[in-house]
Amino acid sequence: xxxxxxxxxxxxxxxxxxxxxxxxxxxxxxxxxxxxxxxxxxxxxxxxxxxxxxxxxxxxxxxxxxxxxxxxxxxxxxxxxxxxxxxxxxxxxxxxxxxxxxxxxxxxxxxxxxxxxxxxxxxxxxxxxxxxxxxxxxxxxxxxxxxx
Length: 148
Fold this sequence. Notes:
Elements: H1 4-8, H2 11-24, H3 27-50, H4 56-83, H5 89-105, H6 111-139
């Protein structure tokens, strides 16, 4: 019978962790992770920077989704091997950020909220897709076997 502690010593697990650590240390991965964190932080504080903090629904939305993006970026930077399964969430948050001014607030009177969300949403979307691409190369392109 296999015990949970025995699986940690399996050679494939150790090799996979080493490969993820090497891939996460690449300059491209580090840049993507850093930009993801910065984009998330900007999204979180954008209502106060762009001047639409008086619109409570979009302010709360941006704060929560921005902190989520920043947390995912930190997770990717610190432990990609354990967080790569969440990489698909970032592009979805990017799309949500783009459409949220119309979905949450309906007809907005302030252009700064729309412009800010569309631009940072597009950036988050692109960063998320790039992270997904790296997730594919980090996992699939490193010689890992897939179950048959």
